[in-house]
Predict the structure.
Amino acid sequence: MDPPIEPVGRHVTAVALSAGTPEFLGPVVVFLFAAALIGYVFVRARVVPIVGFLLAGVVIGPNQLGLVANAEVVQAAAEVGVLLLLFTIGMEFSLERLLAIRRYVLVGGGLQVLLSVAVTAGLVMGFGTGWQDALFTGFLVSLSSTAIVMKVLAGAGRTRDTTGQAALAVLIFQDLIVVLMVLLVPLLAASAAPGSSAGSAAGPWELARVLGTAVAVLALVLVVARKVMPPLLEKVARTCSPELFLLTVVAIGLGTAYLTSLAGVSLSLGAFLAGLVVSESPHSSHALSEVLPLQIVFSAVFFVSIGMLLDVRFVLDHWLLILGLAVGTVLIKTLTGAVAVAALRIAVPTALGTGLLLAQIGEFSFVLQQSAPGLSPAGLGANGAQALIAVTVLLMALTPVLSWLGERLGRRARPVRRRTPEAPAPQTPGGVLVIGWGPVASEVAALSRDRGCQVTVTTLSPDLAAQAAADGHRVVRGDALRQHVLEEAGLHDAGVILIAEDEAEHTIRLLNVIRRYAPDAAVIVRPTDEVDPAALVGAGASRVVDGTRSVGRTVKDAMVRALGREPDTAPYPDTSLPVAYEPDPDTACPHTQSIQVVLPSTPGCAECLREGRTDWVHLRTCLTCGHVGCCDSSPRRHATRHWKDTGHPIIASAEPDEDWAYCYADDTTLDPIR
């Protein structure tokens, strides 16, 4: 009799529990900790973390401390990092975006790559190197680091100045042309192999076949992007399952890369095309925001793996060679980049500054290096790869310094009348960002638009997004807890941010994210459930509307006031403006512990308004519950009555120009902290 068959799940669990520590876990933990630790040091020093990741790889690599011996695990994760990096870059592109700045991309970017390749290849061939290695070296040198350049520009707030726009255009062209380079490099390697001939795999017919395949795949991708992807992602998004949405997007990215590789097209091209497919969907911002955390982790692994390849002993033994190659690279890329940018009729000092900013070698040069066995950078043979890694790490680390020098040069530029690239106009300052959609948000958005403000709406719901778009508002689909979605929606340009359709707990989470990236933004919140003014103000709310006791009119008034325009009738106190009174700590009153952050209950004395009266003299706000009553000089003295009825001892003056408080129990005036 055969023994009973155990369930597969129980068997797998037993193996997992008895197998001990997996072999791959140690290397993964080491390089993640090293990347986080050294990356943190570099961020604190205001240096882009990618440089820290590279250095982390140098430190833990087999040529130095040797903390990671299983290079296969790192290499596998690094390959996933490259695919996700290309996938996300593809998602950040769109056909409309490329068309908007096509002249800057094609002329500026095309000239920069063409000149860099030509000058570099010519110089290398002048030293007796074969044309294949020389052209390959030109490819490597022509590429700059999109990740580092954009990080440096964003940190300096220069993404929209002339240098930033010109650099962006060149980088876009580089990111596109690298796809063609990935196709050509294996052909160069085959041509350079011993025994190759004119009719070998690198011949014109093979090149035509590869390019023809790429064009066919691209045509198929464009059809899928227009016809298949939008409805597919729409159906997945309607499930409102973040897990399913993320799995679908990653499956699209890696699956497309795999299928294109089966057709003879590189994995890198497939990943980029997959991102381009997703970019044509209305859910592209949502998709990118979900994938970015994964991309960051795996891309960090990629940079760590590159750093692991560097041999410090090689650098010490060949420091003069490394220095000469680095200086030569900076000179070539600065001059060729300056010529390319100057061709766009940009002032020469600004063009030189842009050239300096782009003077490093980019991360995709490593991708090319890994896809070209048999080719050697600069014809240096076995030393070529180490020389490339050393020069790249050095120039990446120097990019902030080169950017600073370029900015100094750019300041000497004369004003240029010509507008730089015809990119879509950014959201104008004073715009309104609405997070979440519903009846109240719709009313306030319509009011804001009628007052001349551009309104942008973010929501995860496809149905609500469609409603907001039908009302004529710009819509960014995605989770507003993600930095990318907020930035895509214009967080930094919004004059006012409204959160009116979420519960208090989720509103506080949104406030924490918003304050991390826009600490000075004016934020109006209207939780749909019970309000805790102290928690909301502590999280960063500027104005709080109590949805349990207020109607849309109150939210509208709060928006108008936040925009700096008083409503047609502006009663006081402002019921959306929290009262957070902080008495002087030296005050002897023992009742200050009853003070809370409160919202004024009514725009006037609560009891007088119920009685249809407005004959109060002054108004007082209870600092325990927010009740608004009239003062003792008024006919009915409702503030004092409230104290006697409730025992709430401390009130604050609700008059616009007064900041004192008073304790009924101790007959003491409380001064605020000065």
Notes: The two ends are 89 Å apart (CA to CA).
